[in-house]
Amino acid sequence: MHNLFLGILRHHCISIWDLKSAERRKDKASTKSAHTPEQQEKILRSIRKAVDEKHLSTLTSVRKDYLLAVAAHNKIPESGVKLSKADVARSIYDWVHVNRNVLNLPTAMNRSTVEFQVEPQYCHDSRSALFSNDVLQAVRRGIDTISLPSWVEKPPSNLGDPAAGKLKADHWRTISTIHMTIVLPALWGTSSATSSEREALKNFSHLVAAVDLASRRVMTKARAEKSHEYTVLYLSGLRSLYRADLVPNHHLCLHLKDFLCRFGPPRAWWAFVFERQIGNLEGINTNGKAEDIPTTYVRTFYTSARARDLFASTKWPDEDAFTKMMQSHLKTSEDQARGSRIVDGLSGDTVSKIALWEIPARTPRTQKRLEGTTYDYILKEINNHSKIKYCSPDDHHVMSPRVFLPSTANFVNRMSLRGILYTTRDSGRQNSLVLFRKRGSTAPSAGRIENIFEHSRYEKGEVATELFIEVGEFEPLCATDERHDPYRRYPDIQTWLVYNNVFKTHIMCPTDVIAHFASCEWKPREIERSCLVVRSLDRVSPLHAIDILS
User: Fold this and answer.
1) End of a domain among 83, 114, 145?
2) DSSP single-letter state for residue 246
3) Is 227 helix (H, G, I), strand (E, B) or coil?
4) Rounded distance between C-alpha atoms, residue 233 and residue 213, angstroms
5) What secondary structure letter does DSSP report for 78?
6) Treating both helix axes as pointing N-terminal to C-terminal, what angle do 320-333 and 293-313 enclose, rounded to 10 degrees?
7) Residue 393: which domain range?
8) Does any domain span residue 517?
9) Prior bond of 401 cis (ω within 30°)
10) Percent helix, strand, coil in the chain (nearest 5)?
11) Containing H/E element for 366?
12) 394 near 407, Cβ under 8 Å?
């Protein structure tokens, strides 16, 4: 998926927004003074007078942002990529006096501004100014402050600096679909944003939605078509808003729908595995025998692949010894669980032999008594699927024989769920923020893991152990504040706001946990309470946020 991550996401940041030079634009922007609507009207009249009286030198002395706005308002063709103020003035002058066109002036803005513009207005110069140094610094702060789970590789915080080096495809994916998706709506999606900024955000949200839908691990025809629709919307906006030329990668991404419908999720056929092998080859010590490396490497690669296939396809006996053998093999052969490589697909036989959850080795256990609603929930949950009906020691209405459910459990601070590490809030906040599904609801809720505990009981002479999780749910926004949530205007970017406080707790099974979410604190101007931005990192579930938030 280099076509999307490097060819499209990186191209938008580097070529469209000119991210690399954003930091150098700060001094230029700071020299401009804010003009009131009256001052704007006066400068616009001076442009009209200079054109009518054929004073090119006077026209050239007008501030460049006004000249660009006038050129855009009259749809005057641009003759270059980087136009100087004199070039813009000359193009306006020639358009009127050489081509004999009538010049129309835009209306003044209804507020003071340091950057006069027709709303919306995107010229080659103003589109890069849109992603200013202030925006770049906000994204950099987001990289430092946004909480990510440990399986997401953090990109360099000096984004845009040459010292950051060459970013990997997965870095561009993380920056664009997580950090910028959280930061930009807080800047360009509020009531104080200009229409240019809102249009730029809308165009970028189309790009994020297209990439996110196309790169998910569950693919359907409807999802592939939805991704294609967003791709078309993004490219149309690229032409109409930025007047940008399309590149070959833009053409290629229009054909992705056919591949997604024919071959399924891109993880099954993308080129990351080849890139990874190239990286491994670069780090091999040849020991002066470079000519023997290809044969040795291919032989070892085949042996490892064959062993993995045998372990996955063989029907091993359903005994503890073979289950432990399978788990040991997977731990030995698994790749680093970070970035785009997390949650590699396994065959059905393999999944059936691997426990949904496990407690990592050397995790301390503390035995505590379960009280109140926690014990009542576990009693009800176990009785729903157990062949033995248990009762509480405090229940005196049950007739003999009575089987009491133990009221103690072993509390732990971490667990491995589907191969991903989850922790309690006290042990590590970044891995404790989760999306979960409440019983009877299809919509995900955002919360944090407060406690994890194992509960054991005797059932037919054997010890049965189950894992339970206590999750504190963050309070959803009220209907009034939902209207001020800038993220809800773009439901397919899977981001929304909640109040930054826990208002109720839930006891649940591991199967109720959906995924981690990225987050940061934010206090919107229109909302009186502090909020938490929730960016879903669910890349598996067939349900999508558009079904939940729209």
Assistant:
1) 114
2) P
3) helix
4) 14
5) P
6) 150
7) 357-549
8) yes
9) yes
10) 50, 15, 35
11) strand 366-369
12) no
Residues, the chain:
550
Give the residue among 447, 429, 443 at the shortest CA–CA distance from 504: 447
Q: pTM (2 decimals)?
A: 0.76
The answer to whether 128 and 115 have CB atoms below 8 angstroms apart is: no
Give per-residue pLDDT as tens, 406-461.
999 999 999 998 888 999 999 988 999 999 998 878 889 999 999 999 999 988 78
Instruction: Match 């050489």 to its residue by tokens.
Output: 98
Sign of CA dihedral 190, 492, 147, 507: positive
Query: How far from each other are the two terminal CA atoms of the chain, in whole angstroms?
Result: 29
Do 66 and 156 fall into the same domain?
Answer: no
Both structure tokens of 351: 């999944």
The pLDDT of 64-78, averaged and rounded, is 84
The residue type of 233 is L
**Is residue 68 domain-resident?**
yes
Token output for 39:
């001052």
Backbone angles phi, psi at 194, to 5 degrees: -75, 165
- Boundary-marking domain end, from 246, 275, 304: 275
> What is the Cα gyration radius of the chain?
29
Q: How many CA atoms lie within 13 A of 127 on its CB side?
A: 27
Question: How many whole angstroms separate alpha carbon 528 and alpha carbon 355?
Answer: 45
The token duo for 526 is 């229109």
Residue 443: both structure tokens together? 């919509």
Residue 231 · residue 273 · CB < 8 Å: no
- Beta strands 414-417 and 444-459: pairing type? unpaired
Q: Which two tokens stand for residue 94?
A: 């020639």
Tokens for 65?
Answer: 């942002």
> Distance (Å, rounded) from C-alpha 177 to C-alpha 355?
31
User: Is residue 319 over pLDDT 90?
Assistant: no
Q: How confident is the model at residue 533 (pLDDT cuts 50, 70, 90)?
A: very high
The percentage of the chain sitting over the pLDDT mark of 70, rounded to a whole number, equals: 87
H/E segment holding residue 536: strand 531-536
